[in-house]
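Quick start: read one record
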Amino acid sequence: MSKDLKIGEKVEFHLGTTTATGIIKERITEDQQIGDRIVHAKEDNPKYVIEEDKTGREVIRNANKLHDTGVKSTGGQTGMS
């Protein structure tokens, strides 16, 4: 992906055999432990923590696996009421 992704942006990504959407919650630029995993990242190869819309679970993806939907999160819930 050519542009920098920002926290709060809505993105699409593959989740298993489907395409999912979610909101970027964090940009990781150095190696760190998240849960029981070690995430390897660098400033020039960041990873992103995304809160998946449907389940609320957090997933970690490389920037090149994310597609910007052009929608900025409002910070509120995205589900239907």
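Residues 24 and 50 are 4 Å apart (CA to CA).
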